[in-house]
Amino acid sequence: MTDGDFLRVSDVSKWYGDEQVLDEVSFGMDRGDVTVLIGPSGSGKSTMLRCVNRLAEAQEGSITLDGEEVLSPDTDVDELRREVGMVFQSFNLFAHLSAVGNVALGPRRVLDLSENEARERAANQLERVGLADQLDSYPAELSGGQQQRVGIARALAMEPKLMLFDEPTSALDPELIGEVLEVMRSLVDEGMTMLVVTHEMSFARAVADEVVFLDDGRVVERGPPEQLFERPENERTGRFLERIASHD
Amino acid sequence: MAGATRPRTVGERVADADASAGKALLVAAGALFWGWLVVSWVNRWLGGAIAPVGEPFVAPDAVESAFAAVPGLAAVAADAAFVVELSPVLAQGTWLTVVITGVSLVCGFFIAVPLAVARVYGRFSAWLSLGYTELLRGTPLLAQLFVLYYGLNLAASVPASLSGVFPRDVVWVAILGFTLNGAAYQAEYIRGAVESVDEGQITAGRAIGLSKIESIYYVVLPQALRYAIPSWTNEFVYLIKYSSLAGFITVPELYYRANQVATDTFRYTAVFLILGAMYLALVLTASKFMERVDARVAIPGLGANRER
């Protein structure tokens, strides 16, 4: 298959101290693509994701987003992060702000919208994730699934060209996972470009254009989900998928 | 379930009654104390519109005979009259104590917040902040006041715009001293609270494109300052009492005036008991006030166990 070049990750390597956590990782996505990163814990998936919006700094390689080099010292990281939304495993909602406050903060302070415009945009985004009735609830008053949907709305409110999901359902009780995946599916349907780290294989199978299997910081295998899940070429991929499947 | 109220146990009803009686007593005492203070101050500003400046609102003799008439209180009749006689001086001293504490606390706060942020998020500035805090916390406050007053003779260089606001310019020196010292203590309380804010909060702020300083301002501080309130109240309470050290550099605040009276009259026990009561009233007011503030700014859903 040909690599997309909307987001292109080329030979990215990263070390924490002397320990190499990413080893020449490469993949590419086109606009509107959904790429799912899978792999055992500690394989570098989350780190890879964080390198894309520079929450983690890669030492080597290149990442281009829409033709612009992300890893260049001239890159304005705040500008970059405006365009790249991120959803966290632990939600990281601003604890002191209501749902609307959480979503409106970026538009208000980063995009410089007026208070009213920001709140209106926030309300629209919360409606988009099915939380129109929880605008004034505070994070501590919401369930995990609702919190994560606020987290998604918060990222969407910046109108990003790329969304990063860092294990968005891993901290959720099983019965709350569905509502978050449903929101993510609707984003896929709307054509959002999404890079997702997840253990939800059924989600990956259903919506991914490409699945990238990382192990030990290296891309072991990548391909369309039907190929990777049904006929993994690498024996490590097969073993990992078996382990995951036995827990399902 | 909905709408049904659980009947209260006998124990709860007794506790409720006790609590409301205690609360009523405290509110009444507070109203009396602050009512008297405020009326005294207003009277002084108006040049004695209610009672001649320096004179008590009630004649000490009348109080003495009133007390003497009650069998159980006859023994303290003279002391009661003395306290009444003292009241204008106490009110005057309390004014300065309140102002010095309030101004120093607020000014100190605006130094303490940057100190705390620098300490947690700075590099070089973290060392500067640490040095400042350790120096100011590690040396006696009285020594600091002496250095400012006797050593640097700052009372002589109070700017013209500030000079004359207070009866003596040395009040400004005391405010400066308490501001600098209090900032160090406040910074420690706030630093603890800043450190307790989850790191993910700042990460999330950065992830939507806020700069580090914006993330601290919009995300970390609003949470940290809330968390800091209970421990920060300590500093408030301490400062009310520490402000008595200003008396040692001739600031005519509450302690200074009471001490003067005690030395003049040799009635140390009565004077210092009433002085203690004055400070106690101020401290209780401060802590009750901060309790209110804490409840007022509490984040919904958090700390539900503190709900009343």
**Rough outline of chain B:** flat
What fraction of residues of chain B sit in β-strands? under 5%
The CATH topology label of chain B is: MetI-like fold
CATH class of chain A, anyone?
Answer: Alpha Beta
User: In angstroms, what separates the terminal alpha carbons of chain B?
Assistant: 21 Å
CATH topology tier name of chain A: Rossmann fold
Task: Please identify the structural class of chain B as seen in this structure.
Answer: mainly alpha
Number of domains of chain A: 1
Characterize the overall form of chain A: globular
Coarse structural class of chain A: alpha/beta
Any chance you could write out the topology, listing elements then pairs?
The complex is a heterodimer of chains A (248) and B (308).
Chain A: E1 7-16, E2 19-29, E3 34-38, H1 45-52, E4 60-65, E5 68-69, H2 77-83, E6 84-87, H3 99-109, H4 115-128, H5 144-156, E7 162-166, H6 174-189, E8 194-197, H7 201-207, E9 210-215, E10 218-223, H8 225-230, H9 235-247
Parallel strand pairs in A: 3-8, 3-9, 6-7, 7-8
Antiparallel strand pairs in A: 1-2, 1-4, 4-5, 9-10
Helix pairs in contact in A: 3-4, 3-5, 4-5, 5-6
Chain B: H1 10-45, H2 60-69, H3 77-121, H4 124-138, H5 141-151, H6 170-196, H7 199-207, H8 212-242, H9 254-265, H10 268-296
Helix pairs in contact in B: 1-3, 2-3, 3-4, 3-6, 3-8, 3-9, 3-10, 4-6, 5-6, 6-8, 7-8, 8-10, 9-10
